[in-house]
Amino acid sequence: MNVELTERKKKVLRSVVDLYIRTAEPVGSKLIAELPDMQYSSATIRSEMADLLAMGYLEQPHTSAGRVPSAAGYRLYVDELMAEYRLSLDETKSISSAIEEKMQKVDKMVEKVAKLVSQATDLPAISVASRYGGATVSRFDLILAGQGSIILVLMLSSDEVVNKLIKLPVQLEENDLKLLAALLNATMTELPVEEFNQALLERVMRSAGAGASLVPIVMEFVVDTLNRQGSTNMAVAGQMRLLGQPEYRDVDKAQRLMTSLDEEALSNLPAVMQNTNGTQILVGPEHVARELKDTSVVMTRFDIGDGMQGMIGVVGPTRMDYAKVTARLSYFAESLSKMFAKPEQPQLPEAGKEE
Amino acid sequence: MNVELTERKKKVLRSVVDLYIRTAEPVGSKLIAELPDMQYSSATIRSEMADLLAMGYLEQPHTSAGRVPSAAGYRLYVDELMAEYRLSLDETKSISSAIEEKMQKVDKMVEKVAKLVSQATDLPAISVASRYGGATVSRFDLILAGQGSIILVLMLSSDEVVNKLIKLPVQLEENDLKLLAALLNATMTELPVEEFNQALLERVMRSAGAGASLVPIVMEFVVDTLNRQGSTNMAVAGQMRLLGQPEYRDVDKAQRLMTSLDEEALSNLPAVMQNTNGTQILVGPEHVARELKDTSVVMTRFDIGDGMQGMIGVVGPTRMDYAKVTARLSYFAESLSKMFAKPEQPQLPEAGKEE
DNA sequence: TTTAGCACTCATTACCTTTGAGTGCTAAGC
DNA sequence: GCTTAGCACTCAAAGGTAATGAGTGCTAAA
């Protein structure tokens, strides 16, 4: 359809989007004409805007109102027109120091990241972490803990360590445990989840001797853990920030969007994870989702070590400050990747420091 | 001031509150007169209501409007007038089955409970868990995990088990670890957090031999863990549900309340924890908090085993269905207490079940 | 090709009127 | 002496109309 926009048209379009992002009000020709670096009169702007309207880049809420960017307009804006937003030193600093505070476990981390991103962008944020490879157990340990309690420690291929306290009616000796641990290590390490079946259970139990009654419990826990590992972990934070946006003064609208977030986001994101890995922007109706029409999503991937990848994103009105949001999100992703790249520096002896 | 209310006045007051809770609209004399078990005419009701107004139990938004309960009116209502709400079988079932799904760790649990409570009451909910006694380490274990990695396993006095993967540049033998573990168990168990000081560190390091470089790392982790154990854990969920309430159609109001929740709740709750341990209801201006005027809080304690106590509560408009909310909350608290009372039933061998 | 000018459109706002729910008071009834 | 019917009065909410003004489209001149 349209071959190419003239430079002037682009300039006008950019101005419209910029202004609309700032004010959330339809922008008129006069306003643009008064912009410092705009050398044409409002009449000229008017005719340019009429063209842009015809081309589908702008929309008109009603006859005598200013113009508003259409979805296509936003698309063009984010793809070509948008000025790079340069993060100020303050901004990078506050993001970095926020991330600095060590994140403990992965599931906790996901929540914290969501919260931080939401804070940094003043929009609702989503954070997802998921493993691509299935983890396996790389090592079993059994520790006797007194009064018939046993601690089961699993070390996973992902270098994570999980444990479970098992209270057994049976009395077991230190030696029984050693034997059982050896057996488990011999038969159950490096196995993907799928292979933990009834057959394996029976085979192992037969050789287990005194500790046989422990085996099913161990297996259940292993399967549980590996499944949990494989699953996706996601968190939403700062939903309330939507209310700060003028387009969601309508409570019903805000509510509808927010309730759809939990389920909706989930179904959308896998698709994105497989695609490009820069920052991705979904504008309005491009969504698969049903009623997120005047809503946009900006998201970025980041690397976590150990076979995991993460994604952070924000949700907001189509009229959001894409430049700023993108910049902050990217910086966030970068910082996170960096942080995970040097995990748990071989720590130098230094005690008593607290978060 | 007022000595006692006549039965009839009480009946009228109860009707006003009941109706207002249902409709969120000022209630007029005619409406009450038409109530099935009300044997007086609207004129009589009117004069009774005038009295109640004078006594401060009712308020009048404007001259020609119906009446609305005042804070004092709500207070009287929840203290004396409120009819017990009987949970239906359906309700108890859905609450129970929601809780049934095992909650893993305490911090995860807090969030889950908040979510469940919010769901059950359709209001924003808070959930807090905190330990009263300081935990101690009751057992140390060190496990060699290949490539210079060591797994440190702590068993706490609360029966929780935590671990940490330590990557050390130094190479340590199985035997070194055994010795170190024995040393740690001899010197660092049963100690409250406060005693982990520089002196202890130095003393232990002196006797540690080959594993000396590990000691500071272990200690840092221990201190960290014990502090975390002592700290309060709290979660807020379902903030968005506020928007469903007509009094918070005003977005600004909802937003103000919600932002104040995070900090405010924190400062309020300790006070309550120490007080009564039934269900407690804070009505409107009784709050310590600043701008929670037409907001009430209903909360209940519940027992977690192992030196912990929990609290669940909801936040909502003063006009909330106290009876229903209280009933559900109490049932929740009971179920939770019960669940924690029989933790981790000595499990019978049974494998392959998943959540 | 650009711009000034002007008639026109239409959402928003302000202002006024109407409506009706609900009250307070008084006088009659039980 | 309670209770209740009746009635004038109040006032928020709803509806309807007019004024306002931002912004447009078009035309004619520069």
Q: Helical segment tally of chain A?
A: 11
- Given helix and strand content, the structural type of chain A is alpha+beta
Indicate the CATH class of the largest domain in chain A: Alpha Beta
CATH fold topology of the largest domain in chain A: Beta-Lactamase
Which terms summarize this structure?
Enolase-like, domain 1; DNA-binding; 3-stranded antiparallel beta sheet; Beta-Lactamase; 18% strand; 355 residues; homodimer; elongated; 5-stranded antiparallel beta sheet; alpha+beta; Arc Repressor Mutant, subunit A
Report on the architecture of this protein.
The structure is a homodimer of 355-residue chains. Chain A has 11 helices and 10 strands. Chain A is of the alpha+beta class and 355 residues long. The first copy, chain A, has 3 domains: 7-81, Orthogonal Bundle (Arc Repressor Mutant, subunit A), CATH 1.10.10; 89-132 and 231-340, GAF domain (Beta-Lactamase, 2-Layer Sandwich); 137-228, 2-Layer Sandwich (Enolase-like, domain 1), CATH 3.30.390. In chain A, the strands form 3 sheets. In chain A, strands 7-3-10-9-8 form a 5-stranded antiparallel β-sheet, sandwiched between helices. A 3-stranded antiparallel β-sheet of chain A has the order 4-5-6, with helices on one face. A two-stranded antiparallel ribbon of chain A has the order 1-2. In chain A, strand 1 and strand 2 form a beta hairpin. The longest helix of chain A has 24 residues, at 251-274. At the A-B interface, strand 4, strand 5, strand 6, helix 9 and helix 10 of A face strand 4, strand 5, strand 6, helix 9 and helix 10 of B. Chain A binds a DNA duplex (30 and 30 nucleotides) through residues 26, 28-30, 40-44, 46-47, 49-50, 60-66.
